[in-house]
Every structure is written in structure tokens, then in C-alpha cells.
Amino acid sequence: MPGTAITPITPAALADRIAGLVVQRTGRRVRLVLDGAPPTRPAELAAAVAELLRVRGRAALVVDAGDYLRPASVRLEHGRRDVDMFLDGRLDEGGLCREVLDPASTSGSGRVLPRLWDAERDRAHRDRYRELPVDGVVLLAGALLLGRGLPAELAVHLRMSPAALARQLPVKDHWQLVAFARYETERRPAAEADVLVLADHPDRPAVRMREGG
Predict the structure, then answer these.
(1) Does residue 207 lie within any of the structural domains?
(2) How much is the pLDDT for 79?
């Protein structure tokens, strides 16, 4: 992604900077995607940004992409370690757009479902719809989200080098390393992101903003 130089930043300052990008978009809803492998802590960053937005007067709803996975009969059809399915088939993109991203658009209804599918119990969540105001913000957090056409006004990619990811990902999940490596080369999330965060050390990140950000 073309942009400014990479700059060290604290996690708190990173959250503040991202919240600032959202606040600049006044009078309309914003869909913000925070994308990164689990060790980069995208949900933690989303929660911090959401809290800052609420302090600044913007309603904010965090949605975990893990609550929008496809049923196990589809997701695990070829086994629990199928790299292709993990990369391109496990996320219920249709449900995510229908229940979250489309309603949260500027012209959408604002009626958002925070959780759709409980992957652990393999059954639907019995969640209630939330009404998002005309200037509300949805923060979608998870892994492998960019480069697949999900509609959003802003995107953050938390990048971790292959070596750092191998160190921090649990050994039982090392089969996923191939999927994350393919994601970087095939989906090119850094090129799509408005904010690129180098997160080899999540407590000591560095950031690069897109030109104009």
C-alpha cells in the first residue's frame, strides 16, 4: 500500500489514531474491518477503538468474524485441517453481508445482528438485532477478512511475519501457517488496508497509513 513511513506506536495511540479516522467521517455510518491472525489480537484492538468511539459520541458495535463461520458440515467437510477451506470457505460471507455489513451501510436499515452462528456448539446464536444509528460504527474483527470483497469504509491489517506467527501460534494450529502465508500473497491484504500495522510484537506495534489517512 502506498503510504507514509512506518512509525513505532503504542497500542493505545494506535487505537486512538484509528478512532480518529472514523470520527473524521461525520454524519454517516462506518464499517471498519480489523484483520489479523489471532496472535495479533484484532478483537482486542477493535474493543479499544470501540470504547474510544463511544467516548467521542459514536455508537460502536464490535462483531467477531468467528461468530459468522459456516456450519461444521460445510466448514469441516474435508477435515479439520483443510487449508483451502480455512482460507476461502469457512467464513459465511453471505450471512455477514446480509446481517451486518449491508444493514450498516449509509443506505442500510441499521438493523444489525451481532452474532449468527455458534461454531463451538454448531448451532445458531439466539441473539437480538441491534439498531445502529445513522452515524454508528460496526467494527468487524477477525482473520483472513480482506481481499474478498467485503464492503467497508476503512480497513486495518495487522501483519505478523511468518517467523513471528510460527512462534506465537499454538503448535496445534501450525497447519494454518500455510493458509496465512497464502493469504498474504494471494489476497494482498496490505494493499487493501488503509492502516497497515506491523505486529510481530503486539505490545510494540508500528504503523503505516495510506496516503491521505
Answers:
(1) no
(2) 83
